[in-house]
Amino acid sequence: MAKYQAIKGTYDVMPAEAAAWQHVESVVRRQARAFGFREVRTPVFEDTALFVKGTGEATDIVQKEMYTFTDKGGRSLTLRPEGTPPVIRALVEHSALKESPCVKVFYLAPMFRYERPQAGRLRQHTQFGAEIVGTDSPLADAEVIALLFTTLARLGLSGLTLRLNSVGCPACRPAYRDTLVAHFRPRLDTLCGDCRERIERNPLRILDCKADRDRVQDAPAMTDCLCPACAAHFDRVKALLKGLGVPFAIDKTLVRGLDYYTRTAFEVASQHLGAQDALGGGGRYDGLVEQLGGDPAPGVGFGAGLERFLLAMRNQGVAVPDGPRPDIYVAALGTAASDKAAELCGMLRGKGYACEQDLQGRSLKAQLREANRINARYVLVIGDDELAKGAASLKDMDTHGQREVPFAELADNIEAYCECSCQG
């Protein structure tokens, strides 16, 4: 018989691992709320043209990594490879910027990219992203950077590095583009095949190439070519980050892998991830809303992979809280007792308790082992004697205290019985 396995580059989160995921997701949600971001959810697939136009036709994502298919209606659709274009599409479609001139949203969503799987970088990954749309203020840049940086710190991660750069704007970038071309053209023979093509289509992508990483260190810096407005914006961002206590280092080769970025570009890295050390990053995209059919509106945001968070936490040895323990396990002996246990479980769940019972007709010893395995706080034991007396035996699994609890009183007094069970 055929045995099926998860597709290469995908993964299963089993119950034993789910607690770590839930912890990270809860910290992310708390931090997003603390910064005033509200959650947005977009479809898993979109019109392919959204990413070709929004992400950039010359990017590696569009050229090499998208999962694209034709549906039964003949439409070209693509599984979401990144979060920003779908969010902007949703804000434009639902006129969100007409309701509020400045929108702050975040998302936790699966992304899909066909790339070589490696530790923390898979073909399906879960991304935490945040966007501020409607303002070009450097305050917004500093706020999204601070959200990502402080979220990582709240997860217990240390050894973080914020890499910062400015990629200018349409006014100053053409001159920088010419400077880059003049620098790299005499060096074409030393560049990889992709970069030899990029010099014609988008020379800034050369700076983002991992294969030619060592060869771009002597390239001209964009920060030396910024127009006065971009230079002033970048200076304000740096001053705000210093005021927020967020340390950073200027990285002149940081351009990120997307065509829509303007001005601020940033990336947060961890010393616990090896050579592929990025946890997440983003930047400003002042022309994207208009490019995707909306009225002109500036924006800034980031995307970060939760798999990378968890890998860095594991490598650093960050302790993750255990998942919530069941409140009560009802152990029953015999058919009549099992029926009563089902009734009591229903009542206890109605009171808000996490309650489990044996479903296999196992021995009392086996049921108590199961209660220990799932770390239940209390055990209610019901057998023929308990049915005859109309009372169950309530055991505190932490203190091993035990007392008898009448069925008739259990529904209304379970809290009091649990509180004093160790003294019974």
Report the count of strand segments.
16
Structural class: alpha+beta
Tally of discrete structural domains: 2
Principal-axis shape equals elongated
Spell out the CATH superfamily of the largest domain: Bira Bifunctional Protein, Domain 2
Tally of helical runs: 16
The strands making up the biggest β-sheet line up spatially as 1-5-6-11-10-9-7-8
CATH C-level class of the largest domain is Alpha Beta
Mean pLDDT over the residues: 89
What's the CATH topology name of the largest domain? BirA Bifunctional Protein, domain 2
Model regions low in confidence, pLDDT < 50 over at least 5 residues: none
Describe the largest sheet.
Answer: 8 strands, mixed
**C-alpha Rg (nearest Å):** 28 Å
Helix proportion range: 25-40%
- End-to-end gap: 55 Å
CATH architecture of the largest domain: 2-Layer Sandwich
- What percentage of the residues does DSSP assign to strands (E)? 15-25%
What are the salient characteristics of this protein?
BirA Bifunctional Protein, domain 2; Rossmann fold; single chain; 424 residues; 39% helix; 5-stranded mixed sheet; 2 domains; alpha+beta
